[in-house]
Amino acid sequence: MKTIGWAILGFCVFATPSLALKEGECEVCVSVIEKLDKLLEPEEKTNQDAIEAKFRDFCLTSKKQDNRFCYYVGGLEESATKIVGELSKPLSWGMPALKVCEKLQKKDRQVCELRYEKTIDLKTVDLKKLKIRDLRKILSDFDESCDGCVEKSEFVHKVEVLRDLQMKQEL
Fold it and tell me: Which structural domain range is residue 163 located in?
């Protein structure tokens, strides 16, 4: 009976999903924490209050996904939650950015769901291999839309026309 109990306990321990992050996951969180770490003076790196103040200053000038991260963690005035302490305390201990993000993910899973938009180089990319979502993003970057486009080939043609127009304007 004891062995069954130990077996069940062992299964429960090992069956729980791991929150350990792999390289490349939680890219916005890791990036912001590394930027913040570079902004800190050596004497500020061990002071939790100084880290929080520097993080709030960083958040004032942040854009797009970095700003969204600041909102989730509480670095902005309009943030709904304030878990800045969960960021500053481990950082003051010298914990690596990836480990700090693991701790933040336990408090708010949205922190690690943020991703940077991938940039597409129109000169080198094969448009036929892109997804329709990416083609639509390219069109929106040109402030264009493809009304009536149903098939991928129609989106590709529209992007090719716009790309050619842009190339001519650059010359």
Answer: 127-170
